[in-house]
Design a protein that fits this description.
By secondary structure, this protein is α+β, with helices and mostly antiparallel strands. It has a single domain, classed as Catalase HpII,  Chain A, domain 1 (Beta Barrel). Strand 6 and strand 7 form a beta hairpin. Helix 1 runs parallel beside helix 5. The radius of gyration is 16 Å and the shape is globular. About 3% of the residues have low confidence. This is Phosphodiesterase.
């Protein structure tokens, strides 16, 4: 199963000369500010702090324009995996934030949507899910990355970072403030991978994580050979 997932992802990436999934997107400089107060044994959730970050907003199937697509927000928290180690969090639009809906990917048009990790992390308190949620204090993000880029230049783009138990409500633990875009050539070579870039106390274990890890490897290899 794992080899098949890796081969398929590699073939798609090679054919596209881009990522197998979420090929169309834009990466921004960002800042993650956390509130602290958790008891997970995970610094990002437990301690009030500020981290430099990268945030990539993307379209899962790469459909054109503002067509509905499974949208994604990928966050790389510099130092979020411990001193000198990055933490990658990958989220996609789902049917909603409710316990069952958060596991169902759903195409969306609007960038201010509910994005969840879909796969849960193992923690000292059991399974937990992360989410990137709309920030009521931010500007209307619309459906277009160009408009979002202009809003980011005005300092008006942000999201909320949240955590939840499988049947629990989201608890906001931080804010993601989006800044200017990085150069296109930087975006092209970035490879977000929450399995390789994790954090102590957030375990990426289970069938879905193993399948995703194989797909990430295939996509990286395909981009190099395509």
């Amino acid at each position: 199963m794992w080899e098949a997932a890796q081969r398929v992802a590699g073939a798609v990436a090679a054919a596209r000369h881009a990522r197998a999934l979420h090929p169309r997107g834009r990466t921004f400089e960002a800042t993650v500010r956390t509130r602290g107060g958790g008891r997970y044994g995970v610094e990002l959730l437990d301690r009030a702090a500020q981290y430099p970050a990268l945030v990539r907003l993307s379209r899962g199937a790469g459909l054109p324009g503002t067509w509905p697509d499974v949208l994604g927000v990928a966050v790389r928290v510099r130092g979020g995996g411990g001193p000198g180690a990055d933490l990658d969090v990958l989220t996609s639009t789902t049917a909603g934030g409710a316990p069952l809906a958060r596991h169902v990917p759903l195409p969306r048009r609007r960038l201010a949507s509910t994005y969840t990790t879909i796969a849960g992390y193992g923690t000292r308190h059991g399974r937990r899910y992360l989410a990137v949620l709309p920030d009521p204090a931010a500007d209307d993000l619309g459906t277009d990355l160009d408009a979002l880029t202009a809003a980011a230049a005005r300092g008006r783009v942000s999201f909320l970072f949240a955590v939840a138990a499988p049947a629990g409500r989201w608890r906001v633990f931080g804010r993601i403030v989006v800044g200017p875009p990085v150069a296109p050539e930087v975006d092209r070579v970035l490879a977000f991978d929450p399995v390789r870039h994790g954090a102590p106390g957030l375990r990426t274990d289970g069938l879905l994580w193993r399948l995703r890890a194989a797909a990430y490897r295939g996509s990286r290899d395909g981009r190099l050979t395509g």
